[in-house]
C-alpha cells in the first residue's frame, strides 16, 4: 500500500487554522480520500492532558525549556499513536500544528533558538516531517484579537481555559511571526504561505490549489 500524505497547518492562534482544516478534511473526503485529523498539543489521551497543562493560563512559572519538552512529549506520542499508523494505512493526515509551531513559539517567541528545536525534533521525533505545510499568516493584530476574543468566550461558556499564550505581549508574537516567515523562506518546497487578511473562502481556495497540485504529483509518480 502506498504511504499516505502528511499535511500540517500552521499559524498564530486566530489565523483560522481550525476552520480551514475542517473545510479541507470535508473537501478531501468528498473526493474519496481517507482522512485523519489531529492536533498538537493533543490528539491522544496523553496529548490532551499535556494540552490542558501547557495552554491553561493558570500554569504560571513554566520554564521555557520545560514547556518545549512537554510539546515534544506530546508530539512523540502523536507520531507513534496516530500519525505513523495512519500514514502506513495510506490515509491523508491533517495535523493542526507540528514542529514548526515549536520552532516559532519556543524557538522564536521564547528565544530558545531554532537549532535546539530542530535537534530535539531529530532525536525525539525521528525527524518526521510533513509532506506539505500550509502556513496561514493573516495580519498579526487581527489574529491576536480573534484568538483573545475566542478564549474569553470559551472561558465564559465554562469551556477549557486555553488562554495562556494569549497573555503574552505583542513583542513575543512579533518574534513568533518572524520565525514563521524564516521557516517558510528556508523550506519553500514544503511550506506554502498564505498571507493577508483574506476571506475564509479565499484561504480555502488557495489551500485547495496547493493540495490539488501535490495530489496530482503523487498520482503522476505512482
Kindly describe this structure.
- The structure is a single chain.
- It is globular, with a radius of gyration of 17 Å.
- It is of the alpha/beta class.
- It has helices spanning 17-30, 45-55, 64-88, 99-109, 114-125, 140-156, 170-186, 200-221, and strands at 5-11, 35-39, 92-96, 132-137, 191-195.
- The protein has eight helices and five strands.
- It has a single domain, classed as P-loop containing nucleotide triphosphate hydrolases (Rossmann fold, 3-Layer(aba) Sandwich), CATH 3.40.50.
- Strands 2-3-1-4-5 form a five-stranded parallel beta sheet, with helices on both faces.
- It starts with a strand and ends with a helix.
Strand arrangement in the largest pleated sheet: 2-3-1-4-5
Per CATH, the superfamily is P-loop containing nucleotide triphosphate hydrolases
Total strand segments = 5
Radius of gyration: 17 Å
Question: Helix coverage percent of residues?
Answer: 55-70%
Could you give a short account of the major beta sheet?
5 strands, parallel
Q: What is the CA–CA distance across the termini?
A: 11 Å
Structural class by secondary-structure content: alpha/beta
Oligomeric state as shown: single chain
The CATH architecture can be given as: 3-Layer(aba) Sandwich
As residue ranges, the low-confidence spans are none
What is the count of structural domains?
A: 1
Average pLDDT figure: 90
CATH topology: Rossmann fold
How do the SSEs run, as a string of H and E? EHEHHEHHEHHEH
Number of helices: 8
The global form is globular
Amino acid at each position: 500500500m502506498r504511504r499516505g500524505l502528511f499535511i500540517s497547518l500552521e499559524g498564530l492562534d486566530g489565523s483560522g487554522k481550525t476552520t480551514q482544516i475542517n473545510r479541507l478534511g470535508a473537501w478531501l473526503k468528498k473526493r474519496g480520500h481517507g482522512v485523519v485529523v489531529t492536533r498538537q498539543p493533543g490528539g491522544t489521551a496523553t496529548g490532551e492532558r499535556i494540552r490542558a497543562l501547557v495552554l491553561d493560563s493558570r500554569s504560571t512559572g513554566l520554564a521555557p525549556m520545560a514547556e518545549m519538552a512537554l510539546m515534544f512529549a506530546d508530539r512523540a506520542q502523536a507520531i507513534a499513536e496516530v500519525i505513523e499508523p495512519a500514514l502506513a494505512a495510506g490515509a491523508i493526515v491533517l495535523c493542526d500544528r507540528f514542529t514548526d509551531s515549536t520552532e516559532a513559539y519556543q524557538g522564536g517567541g521564547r528565544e530558545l533558538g531554532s537549532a535546539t528545536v530542530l535537534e530535539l525534533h531529530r532525536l525525539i521525533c525521528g525527524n518526521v516531517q510533513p509532506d506539505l505545510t500550509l502556513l496561514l499568516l493573516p495580519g498579526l493584530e487581527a489574529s491576536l484579537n480573534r484568538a483573545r476574543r475566542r478564549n474569553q468566550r470559551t472561558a465564559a461558556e465554562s469551556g477549557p481555559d486555553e488562554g495562556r499564550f494569549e497573555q503574552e505581549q505583542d513583542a513575543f508574537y512579533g518574534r513568533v511571526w518572524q520565525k514563521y516567515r524564516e521557516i517558510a523562506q528556508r523550506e519553500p518546497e514544503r511550506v506554502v504561505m498564505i498571507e493577508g487578511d483574506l476571506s475564509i473562502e479565499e484561504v480555502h481556495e488557495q489551500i485547495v490549489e496547493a493540495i490539488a497540485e501535490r495530489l496530482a504529483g503523487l498520482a503522476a509518480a505512482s
